Amino acid sequence: MIPSTRPAGSPFTPFVLMALFLVFGLGGTLIGCESAKKTLSTPPTVKLQQDGDHEFKWGRFESAAAFYKRILDREPGNPAALEMYGRCMLELDRPAEAADAFLTGTAHRPGDRSLLFLLARAEFSSGDYDRSFQLVRTWAIDNQDAEAWLLLAGFALELDDPDNARDAIERAIKLDPTGSAAAYLAAADLAERLGDTDLALRRLRQAYGIEVDNSVIADRLREYGEIPGPTVVLPPGV
Predict the structure, then answer these.
(1) CB-based contact 34:28 (threshold 8 Å)
(2) Quick one: pLDDT band at residue 42, thresholds 50, 70, 90?
(3) CA angle 56, 59, 61 (to 5 degrees)
(4) Which of helix, strand or coil describes residue 12?
(5) Residue 193, C-beta contacts closer than 8 angstroms, at least 6 positions apart
(6) Which 8-state DSSP code applies to residue 156?
(7) How many Å apart are CA 206 and CA 227, to the nearest integer?
(8) 112 φ, ψ to 5°?
(9) What's the pLDDT at 13?
(10) Contact 148, 136 (CB under 8 A)
(11) How far apart are CA 169 and CA 43, in angstroms?
């Protein structure tokens, strides 16, 4: 007869112990699988951002917004996700939701120029004209920002307000007379709208002097019977 190897007083036989090891081992495996599933079902923020950016790049704005929304559900103040979610809402013609996202974003990125401009555009598109004008005008004055004045001019033109548009365009030209032809093109557009073709041509000639390789300006000069070249250039300024 083979003697028992069970310690005296132990309630477990070797077979029982082996069974317990198998049960606990299997349980640990199951717990590990559940943990892995949970990890796979909640990708990190950086992956969600990359997926959203990819969808946005290809114009799939609903899909992109869903990725950014998952980030915001997890991190409500994530600045990058807030900006891109707002951009999606603008593309989807939901400007009020875009404005909410951008407004929250500015609280986390105070002084961010591009975000403030996006907020102003969203509020303008949603019909909050006074608020959008106030935002851009305050920024333009405080920062002596020519581009902000041009944005304000664009708002004014959309509302058929030529006086405010002219004032904003001229302020932009004074602040940055040679930096970009954009202000002169805006001035030419306004002059044409008001029937002042002489002023429109002068502004186009000034714009050409700043961007001589701009084919759009050259084509518009030809429409006025001008041949683009050094002789048509006029000095910059109001």
Answers:
(1) no
(2) confident
(3) 60
(4) coil
(5) 157, 162
(6) H
(7) 14
(8) -80, 110
(9) 53
(10) yes
(11) 48
> How many residues are listed for the chain in this entry?
238
Contact status, residue 137 vs residue 127, Cβ threshold 8 Å: no
Q: Which amino acid is at 222?
A: R
Sign of the C-alpha dihedral computed for residues 88, 89, 92 and 95 taken in this order: negative
**Which residue type, as a one-letter code, is found at position 182?**
A
Q: Could you write out the three-class secondary structure of 164-228?
A: HHHHHHHHHHHHCCCCCCHHHHHHHHHHHHCCCHHHHHHHHHHHHHHCCCCHHHHHHHHHCCCCC
Give yes or no for residue 83 having a pLDDT over 90.
yes
Question: Is 183 within 8 Å of 176 (Cβ atoms)?
Answer: yes
Model confidence pLDDT, tens digit, residues 165-179: 999 999 999 999 998
For the CA atoms of 67, 103, 99, 74, the dihedral, rounded to the nearest 10 degrees, stands at: 20
**Amino acid (1-letter code) at residue 181:** A
Our measurement of the distance from residue 31's CA atom to the centroid of its chain's CA atoms, rounded to an integer in Å, reads 42
* 164 residue type, one letter: N
CA distance linking residue 14 with residue 50, whole number of Å: 54
Q: Residue 17's closest CA among 43, 25, 45, 107?
A: 25
CB 175 within 8 A of CB 146: yes
